[in-house]
Design a protein that fits this description.
By secondary structure, the protein is mainly alpha-helical. Helix content is 72%, strand content 0%.
Length: 455
């Protein structure tokens, strides 16, 4: 055990920091941004590096059995007899989403007056950005010609489920809304259950609440993939915490069949499996099950690549379309901080406040806010969650043309877990945070309804 701890601290941690520093240095040597943009990039890389510095000792101590109990002896296991608050959580999430729909309708009414019935207005307000593409796939599947051929970049599980629900003789849009709300309710319940493995009841409830009120969390009520992806991610991690690794692999594979970043769930499941192997010393069969469950997650990505091949003749057509049609490639996350800052300043100088307040400022605030929460909470987060949060952040924010930062980060569940840990036992700060986040979400929703570039 001590050997693993020494290796992580002596080799892995410095290597990761040197790799980050070298990556940043190579990028900075070629970058041509203003001083403010370069400062933003440096701040982003520095915060990320500090998170790494805090993660590795936590991971080393955890793997060496000096930090944290085995999964099955966590707080949740000591109170199975207590009543589950699932009904209350489900009611809260459903009520919140009804209020979000009502708020969106009122925002639109105040902005442009009466423009139609409630259902028609709801479809007009919420069926935007990527939502119509998923419904198009549900109705016509993927095609190889015309403009819809570019929709191959959207992963298939969500439209498949829309298609199944639409068999109930309802349209694709109502089916998508119903699906997203069912998944969002499930997210609240599973977030509570996962948090309750390590936290007291009130802390677990607060964690579930946070996932519902982040600025981009209103997308959990939208006909898009966020609620499904978050549900499957939570189910994957909860299964691994209960040592049901084949089930974790199944949920992880479904998450990877929903969004590209689902493949990243292999990391936290692998860390959990390694911890179990070192602590419990299972039989060779138990080790095989853990390896199989972790590997199964890649099947979701493999299934998506197979669809690409069957439809277009190449498993990697989506990468070409992402780059050529959607202007999206994977780049350094600190480059995102730089160009978003540069564009914010340029649009502010030109008076384009809609781009400033609708796109660049929310992206930057949520990105830096996420790192700002992860940094102090990294020593309290379970190492598998912390590692996943950093890798997810680097990939999701490392877009060459980031449009949806708040939406992407709203489903990075370790942020809520970290914030709950930081405010444990502090009722007033928690209330203030919940109010601020809710107001921020409503402001962001207002911009979405008002036609700002909120994606």
């Amino acid at each position: 055990m001590k050997t693993i701890e020494k290796m992580l601290m002596k080799y892995a941690s410095p290597a990761a920091l040197l790799l980050l520093a070298g990556w940043f240095a190579l990028w900075a040597f070629k970058a041509e941004y203003s001083a403010a943009a370069m400062l933003a990039a440096y701040a982003s890389a520095a915060l990320f590096g500090l998170c790494l510095i805090r993660l590795f000792p936590r991971l080393a101590g955890w793997l060496s059995l000096e930090d944290g109990p085995p999964a099955e002896t966590g707080i949740r296991a000591s109170r199975f007899g207590r009543r589950h608050p699932w009904a209350a959580i489900a009611l809260r999430v459903a009520l919140l989403h009804v209020l979000l729909y009502a708020a969106a309708y009122c925002f639109d009414l105040a902005r442009g007056g009466y423009t139609g019935g409630l259902l028609n207005t709801m479809e007009r307000l919420w069926n935007r950005t990527d939502a119509p593409h998923y419904q198009g796939i549900a109705e016509n599947w993927y095609v190889a010609e015309g403009d819809p051929r570019f929709h191959i970049v959207f992963f298939p599980l969500y439209p498949i489920l829309i298609k199944i629900l639409s068999l109930l003789n309802i349209g694709s849009f109502p089916a998508a809304v119903i699906l997203s709300n069912i998944c969002a309710i499930g997210c609240g319940i599973l977030a509570y259950e996962l948090a309750a493995v390590d936290m007291e009841r009130k802390d677990a409830l607060f964690t579930a609440t946070l996932l519902s009120v982040f600025p981009g969390s209103f997308f959990l009520a939208a006909p898009m993939t966020e609620s499904l992806f978050l549900l499957l991610s939570l189910a994957c991690l909860l299964s691994s915490r209960k040592k049901s690794y084949l089930l974790a692999g199944l949920f992880g594979a479904l998450a990877a069949f929903t969004r590209s970043v689902g493949l990243l769930l292999m990391l936290p499941v692998f860390i959990e499996a390694m911890g179990d192997i070192l602590r419990d010393k299972p039989s060779s069969k138990g080790i095989a099950f853990r390896a199989l469950g972790t590997s199964m997650i890649a099947l979701g990505t493999a299934g998506y690549l197979l669809i690409n091949h069957l439809v277009t003749g190449s498993p990697f057509t989506f990468l070409i379309y992402q780059s050529q049609h959607w202007n999206q490639q994977l780049g350094p996350f600190f480059n995102t901080a730089a160009y978003q800052t540069e564009l914010l300043l340029k649009n502010a100088a030109s008076g384009d406040t809609r781009m400033v307040y609708g796109l660049f400022l929310p992206n930057l605030l949520c990105a830096f806010g996420t790192l700002g929460i992860l940094l102090p909470s990294m020593k309290r987060l379970r190492p598998s969650y912390g590692a996943y949060a950093l890798v997810y952040f680097a990939v999701a924010i490392g877009c060459t043309w980031l449009l949806s930062g708040p939406r992407y980060l709203a489903v990075c569940f370790p942020v809520a877990f970290g914030l709950a840990e930081l405010t444990k036992g502090r009722r007033i700060p928690r209330a203030v945070i919940a109010v601020i986040l809710t107001i921020s979400m409503l402001i962001y929703l207002w911009m979405f309804v008002s036609g700002y570039p909120v994606y």
